[in-house]
Model the fold of this input.
Amino acid sequence: MLIVFNPTAGRRRAALLWRVLDVLAANGVRLDLMETNRAGHAEELAREAVARGEPLVVAAGGDGTIAEVANGLMGSDTSLGVIPLGTANVLAHELNLPFAPRAVAAALAFGRTEPIWPGVVRQGESTRLFVQMLGAGFDAHIVHTLPLPLKRLLGRGAYVLWTLRQLTRYDYAPIPLRLDGQDTQAASVIVSKGRLYGGHFLLASDAVPQEPGFSVVLFDRGGPGITLLYGAALPLHRLGRAPGVRHVRANRVEFMGNRQVPLQTDGDKAGYTPGVVTNAIGAIRIVVG
Done:
């Protein structure tokens, strides 16, 4: 079993990893641990593991690390395991994956899997896979500008603090896009594979992670006031039903226009528009317990 560990998770989360590994080792599971040292390294390690014939590669980190490993496994029979060490761990909440060290170890050892069908964003010659969601607009602006030391210090609270700081600094200009050939626009956009956002908070109840297609959540209104309202609605699980929010099912999402709008995928920076979002070439098997 190869464990791909993102050490930027921090000391406290690393301690959770060691507890999982201790349980696995005590039960005779052969472990190989490799740390990432740059963006894209987790994908490279996963591809190498596929070439060696590894049956299981485990992503130990947040949603971004999981997406990188998934990208390296795409098109293979190698399964994806998860040790959730990130700030939000949205995919783990989405699939009801275990968090307690003994339960995580038991799930990885047992190896029961389910499919998930990722999305892909193409920007020029580059492609990027995501397992939970892609954001365009204000939430991506927060991801792009949030200082890493603040994130490490406050965790999820850093996003709340930085959102309040940036409310009057973002321009909220409309984002032109095309959904399965139909033109529209919105102040912010979430292209979601799953139902949850920002942790365990409900956003897109019509999303189906196991099948191709996206729930595209369109925030028609922009500005500091409505954004503050959206932020208050999130922990109440009412963001998806807030005023000015639309839900559209689509298989192809095209971000158009000359203005560069920030993008984020699974909580990581993902460049700027324009770009095209489509379904990945197939599903990935993920260990669920």
Remarks:
- The chain has a mean pLDDT of 94.
- The chain has two domains: 2-111, 121-280.
